[in-house]
Every structure is written in structure tokens, then in C-alpha cells.
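User: Run a structure prediction on this.
Assistant: Running it now.
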Amino acid sequence: VQLQASGGGLVQDGGSLRLSCVASGRTSGSFTMGWFRQAPGKEREFVASISGLGSNTAYTDSAKGRFTISRDNAKNTVYLQMNSLKPDDTAVYYCAAGVQWNYWGQGTLVTVSS
């Protein structure tokens, strides 16, 4: 499974971005998919996940109420809609797939300016 993330960029404090992650290869709608991020000088952290059919989602506390994860299995794509962005959200965002996060994308940089 190959994952290609996109949608990062520079946005002002309070702005919005939508990240996309397209899966290719041995794809399956049963894969749990998720987003992680790594800020400069910090460890990679979990942001959000969504079950294979999209019925279950989970978020880190800092993302609740601001970020929404969704998926379109017909397009093999998972999205992360990020609203009310803050400078602390600045990081490289990675998509991942699999029960034990077996598969990772290359990351997309999100920069939130104050």
C-alpha cells in the first residue's frame, strides 16, 4: 500500500486547510486510516483516525472540535479538514494506514503563522 498526502501549506492563525491522502496498491476499504503530525523538535503524535467504513473516528484532545477526519472509499482517499488553525498546529502531517499503522505516507507540511 502506498500513501500520498497533499494539501499542506501556509495559513494564518484561525485559517483552514484540508489534507488529502490517496491510497494505492493493495488497497482495501477495511483499512483503518489516520493522521499523525510531527512538529520541529518534537516526537510524532497521533491526530485522528477513522475506521474502514468510516463509522468510528478518534481525535487527540487538541483536535477535537476543530479537525474532522473523513474518507471516501470509492476514491481510496482520507481527508483531514482542519479549521481554526493555531501556530501550535504547525507540523509535518503524515497519513498512515493499517491496524498497527503498517503503512505511512511521505508527509505534508502545514505552517500556521501568527
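The radius of gyration is 13 Å.
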